Amino acid sequence: MKIGLISDTHSYLDDAVFEYFKDCDEIWHAGDFGSLEVIERLQAFKPLKGVFGNIDAKDIRMIYPENLRFQCEGVDVWMTHIGGYPGKYSPLVREEIRKNPPKLFICGHSHILKVQFDQKLGLLHLNPGAAGKQGWHKQRTLMRFEINQDRIENLEVIELNPRW
Predict the structure, then answer these.
(1) DSSP 8-state assignment for residue 49
(2) CA-CA distance, 48 to 81, in Å (whole number)?
(3) Residue 47 backbone zone (phi > 0: left; psi -120 to 50: alpha; other: beta)
(4) Rg value, the chain, Cα
């Protein structure tokens, strides 16, 4: 399964996303879509999984949950917008993540691209950074990776044009 991972679009969807994700089987959005238009464009392109972010209005919160936990090719995946990172998980997820850690934990919110393995919990943490133009980040980023049976493989970081 080839996955395109994106977050923090804040109502802006770069056309380059469609080229980078053309060979993906699904797109996963880790919150802060910003508008229904972003959702509609992604859904028309590929199957879309997502969670709402703190800037998403009620219309988006009615479509997507705050937390999404699912199985993909034998990998337990948990996606949320505000999740923190290994050693500093958000109080909103900390208790559950310690009791029942997923194999892959995905979040957005920080606009900081991060790939980190949590040795203590045995999980891979991914944050694709921010793909939109809103925020303090200078470089807009995405990720692509594959899930093959129970393995996460071929992770790529994609840099879009800078946000200005």
Answers:
(1) E
(2) 15
(3) beta
(4) 14
pLDDT for residue 161: 83
Q: How many other C-beta atoms are found inside a 10 Å radius of the C-beta of residue 87?
A: 9
- For the full predicted model, state whether its pTM sits above 0.85: yes
pLDDT in tens, 16-71: 999 999 999 999 999 999 999 999 999 999 999 999 999 999 999 999 999 999 99
Q: How far is CA 152 from the centre of its chain?
A: 15
- Sign of the CA dihedral with 52 first, then 80, 145, and 74 last: negative
The label of the residue with tokens 């939109």 reads 132
Length of the chain: 164
Closest CA to 26 of 11, 10, 46, 7: 46
pLDDT band of 137, cuts 50, 70, 90: confident
Cβ atoms of residues 90 and 83 within 8 Å: yes
